[in-house]
Amino acid sequence: MKADRSSRAVRILRYGEREGSRSDDQLAAEEPLELRVNGVPLTVMMRTPGHDRELVLGFLFGEGIIRNRHEVNALNTVANGEHPHLENVIDVQLAASAPGVDARWQRNFVSATSCGLCGVSTIEAIHRSAPPIANSELRVTPDVLYGLEARLRAEQAVFSRTGGLHACGLFTLEGDPVAVREDVGRHNAVDKVIGFAAEHELLPLERHILMVSGRTSFEIVQKALQARIPILAAISAPSSLARDLAQASNQTLIGFLRGRQLNVYAGRQRVD
Predict the structure, then answer these.
(1) 31-108 has which fold?
(2) Which residues are catalytic?
(3) For 73-115, what is each residue's pLDDT tens digit?
């Protein structure tokens, strides 16, 4: 069984009731993961080790490099020549049917770091690959939404040790958890959850809720749209462009979901 590398023990100097006392603490692990496609390096992601296969599948799906897990012939951990113990190089062999990596990849799903694009043209570019959600008939009750924060927190084992990780949870419309993943990167946590769905052939996620522990960025709404998730909820606020994309994509976007309070920023028709 592989060792858990999601956190690391450190010695610290703690001030409080016993000033200057030495004690042990746990830090959330952050390590690089190199992704190769057909043997060619594609990107390096800083992530929390664990569920790396899901992270890779979710990333490839979100970037339009694959459309489902059957377009991956093999996903193998290969040797890191400098640090063999890290197991942090993954090579993906794509099927011939996969869209793959080409000149479109860099901006296939246009990120918020794009230059020379306004918000409107960015959303239009995204809708060429992932059209708005068609189904507006789904309903979720506030009581289901109110329960998501506690259910997400209950699954955050590494956060309970470290206090330093983001989380993303996939839930049914009844509020039952399907998968919860943690990572130092919010986008990585989302990719891990979507990768779980790809691995278990659950895509498209047309009858699910996505919950994130922090704020909702434009990229998170974009990834949810690609996976066809109609309802997104977050403990914190959305960005302005996240709200614009959700509204243009007919997605329900909820923020400040804390206790028995929430704000609906887009898609209010689904909150019953």
Answers:
(1) Ubiquitin-like (UB roll) (3.10.20)
(2) 115
(3) 999 998 776 666 667 899 999 999 999 987 555 444 433 333 3
